[in-house]
Amino acid sequence: xxxxxxxxxxxDDYENVEAIMKQVQKLHITWRPDIYQEVDVVLPFEEFVQLxxxxxxxxxxxxxxxxxxxxxVCRHIESDKQVTRDVxxxxxxxxxxxxxxxxxxxxxxxxxxxxVKEKNFDGLELQVNAKNISAKxxxxxxxxREKSINMELI
Length: 154
Known about the structure:
Blueprint: E1 4-8, H1 14-31, H2 45-53, E2 57-62, E3 65-79, E4 82-95, H3 104-118, E5 123-126, H4 133-142
Parallel strand pairs: 4-5
Antiparallel strand pairs: 1-2, 2-3, 3-4
């Protein structure tokens, strides 16, 4: 694989980030047009800047091109029926269509694992669309296992 590195996103990355977000939105529309719809802007600039300022949005870069995006949220789980845990939840992980299958997703997951270790989280979790077979396969190959299954009655 060509040299790929992960870095914190900057406000001037917005145009490239939004282009990748639009690719993801198109996939969602293809899979579930009953839920997802065409929009002019997937991630408003103001929201993106907030994520950048919170230092929870990252980009994967190759040859000075943004080829992937990654963001996370921290989830504190506490109840009388569960073990108290702090989990890093991957909110968004996407690779530009023409760069998929080159190990970039694995590189971004490695980066998230380093944050889990650095910040002493109890786990790393994510959710994947049931129709996104290639992403599910990639996550399983990386070592993720099913934790729960969302179901719906239409």
